[in-house]
Amino acid sequence: MLLKPVKSAAQKIALVPTMGALHKGHISLLELAQQKADVVVCSIFVNPTQFTDPKDLEKYPRPLEHDIQMLEAAGCDIVFMPAVAEMYPTPETWHIDLGPAEFLLEGAFRKGHYQGVTQIVKKLFDAVDPDIACFGQKDFQQILMIRQMVAHFDLKLEILSCPIIREDDGLAMSSRNIHLSAADRQHALILSKALNYVHENFDTKPIAELLIDAETMISATPGVELDYFTIANGETLLPESDKNAQNIVALVAAKVGQTRLIDNILLS
Ligand SMILES: Nc1ncnc2c1ncn2[C@@H]1O[C@H](COP(=O)(O)OP(=O)(O)OP(=O)(O)O)[C@@H](O)[C@H]1O
Ligand SMILES: CC(C)(CO)[C@@H](O)C(=O)[O-]
Ligand code: BAL
């Protein structure tokens, strides 16, 4: 509705969906969107249906004024900030088939998470009607699930995956990094270090050895509780044992102090 006046054959619309607490990772999505489209919409909505831990939802950072300033400075055309009641006016059930990868990795640790993510992303697509939508590779599995949802509804839009933006010391930028204490912040570096180690040694060491080394590095770090470290097929997310296969990715998730972080790196 909001965008009907600007939507025409000549005007391409790109959507950058976010949950706010913006950082340079989000701005990189916006910049890519600006290169690809005439009008860029950024949505800020902390979506309750994708949270499996109520405390995580409650403490999710919401620095709205700062977010708006960042979007203005970055030249974003439209900010879409719906209220919860606007996106969920009546109680509703949502369940679509996202394929077997829904239940692996993040889906195993956050049960129902991708049903909530695809539910809200479909609502955002319906509201904005974009030609392109940009998502970060940091949430690797999320992009796979969104592509499944797009295929399920046969939506005519392009999903773009954008590279992971990191702090100078390698930590993947994430809104939840704000919860890390100074000690957690140092300990969290082991995640990108382990991923880089696997990347650097991928041609010379067997996958089984790389996995043991990475898990040992992470387990030896104080305050870090590993959920998973896997080397997997980038489509099925099933463990990969053949180094000559295409589309291999290493993915990690761990709790650092009280904060759960994820990261990944492409290997082939
Ligand atoms: N470091 C990053 N580099 C590139 N894209 C990112 C990065 N961090 C987040 N994104 C992308 O930004 C979009 C919005 O993500 P979101 O608002 O959840 O931020 P976030 O930093 O991932 O927060 P959190 O992981 O703590 O929920 C998603 O597509 C996400 O993949
Ligand atoms: C895609 C998204 C905005 C849906 O709430 C969220 O999962 C995120 O920020 O990655
Ligand atoms: N960036 C992914 C959204 C979430 O963790 O719920």
**Shape by Cα distribution:** globular
Task: Estimate the strand proportion.
Answer: 15-25%
**Ligand identities:** adenosine-5'-triphosphate, pantoate, beta-alanine
- How many domains? The number is 2
Rg calc: 19 Å
**Architecture per CATH nomenclature, i.e. the level-2 architecture of the largest domain:** 3-Layer(aba) Sandwich
Provide the CATH top-level class of the largest domain. Answer: Alpha Beta
Low-pLDDT windows of residues: none
Strand order of the largest sheet: 3-2-1-4-5
The CATH superfamily of the largest domain turns out to be: HUPs
The description of the largest β-sheet is:
5 strands, parallel
Ends apart, CA distance between termini: 42 Å
Q: From N to C, what is the helix and strand string?
A: EHEHHEHHHEHEHHHEEE
Count of individual beta strands: 8
The level of helicity is 25-40%
The mean pLDDT is: 96
Q: Count of helical segments?
A: 10
| Classification by helices and strands | alpha/beta
CATH overall fold name of the largest domain: Rossmann fold
Family: Belongs to the pantothenate synthetase family.
InterPro entries: Cyt_trans-like, Pantoate_ligase, Pantoate_ligase_C, Rossmann-like_a/b/a_fold
EC number: 6.3.2.1
Binding site for (R)-pantoate: 50, 142
Written overview of the protein:
By secondary structure, the chain is of the alpha/beta class. It has two domains: 13-162, Rossmann fold; 175-266, Pantoate-beta-alanine ligase, C-terminal domain (Pantoate--beta-alanine Ligase, Chain: A,domain 2). Helices cover 37% and strands 19% of the residues. It has ten helices and eight strands. The chain has a five-stranded parallel β-sheet with strand order 3-2-1-4-5, with helices on both faces. The protein is globular. Adenosine-5'-triphosphate binds next to α1 and β4.
